[in-house]
Amino acid sequence: MYKKYLLIASKLDYAGTNIALALSQFKLPNLDISFVETEIIDDKGINPLLIERYDFVIFASKHQSSEGGKTLSIHAPGNFKKADFGGKPETLCLSSALFQKFLFGELHKKAEEHLVKNYQLTLECTHHGPLINKPCVFIEIGATPNEWKDKRIAFIVAKAIKSAIENFQLNKYQEIAIGIGGPHYCPNFNKIQLDSNIAISHIIPSYILPVSEEIILEAIKKTQEEVDFVLLDWKGIGPAESREQIISILDKNHINYKKTKEIKK
Known about the structure:
Elements: E1 5-10, H1 14-24, E2 31-36, H2 48-51, E3 56-64, E4 71-75, E5 78-79, E6 91-92, H3 97-113, E7 120-123, E8 136-143, H4 145-148, H5 151-167, E9 175-180, H6 187-195, E10 198-204, H7 213-221, E11 229-232, H8 240-252, E12 257-259
Parallel strand pairs: 1-2, 1-3, 3-8, 4-7, 9-10, 9-11, 11-12
Antiparallel strand pairs: 4-8, 5-6
Helix pairs in contact: 1-5, 3-5
C-alpha cells in the first residue's frame, strides 16, 4: 500500500534521535530519515515539499508525562479543540487504522522478544501537532530522560518500525473504527487493537468531551480506510448526557457504532 516511508525525528529529542539512528543501521530501501531543528510538534520545522515525496510519515519522539513511568506508545496526531502544541484547532492528520494496528502489534512482538517487561505498551488518544497532508503516526518512548536516552529501548522501537515497514499489507477482512471515550492511555482500546479483528485510527478521549458533530466527522474523514463503525468506551464516555449527545450525532449521520464490551478479544 505504501511504497515510500519517511521517518522524522527532532535533533532536540534524545528518544527520537536514538530511534532514528538505530533505524538507519538497517538501510531500508523504502525508508528515508529526516531530522528537524525544531521540536517535533512544531509545524514550522516541517518541510511540506519534502513530505510530498512520501506515502507515509512516521514521527519518532519522546513522550513526556508529569506522572513519569516507562511507556512505549503510538498515536495519531491532531487537535480536537485548541492547538496549544502544534497543528491547527479542530483539525486532525490523516491516519491509517490498519498501519497503526500493525505497528502496535509489531511493537508488542519486539518488546516480548527482547524481554521488555517494565514498560507499558499503549495507544494514546489523538493529540498535538504537527499538521501534515500525508497519513502519519507517532511512536514514542516515555516518560523521563532516563528512558529517552536508553539506546537499547530505542533499538527495540526501531526494530518494530523496520518490521512494520517490511511486512505491512492491507487486510481487507479487518474492520475499521474510530474510538470515543476513556482516558488518555486507552486501556479498553489497547486490548481491541491488539487482540481483535478491529483496527482503530483516531481516538477521542473523555476529557475533551463534549465534542461537535464536525469533530466526529473529521475523525472519520481523516481515517484513510473506510470506517465501518465508531467504537464507544461506554463507561468511559461519562454522564448520560454525553452518551446521548454522541449517539444523537451518530444516528443523525447514519453511522454505526458498537460498545467496547461487545467486542470479542
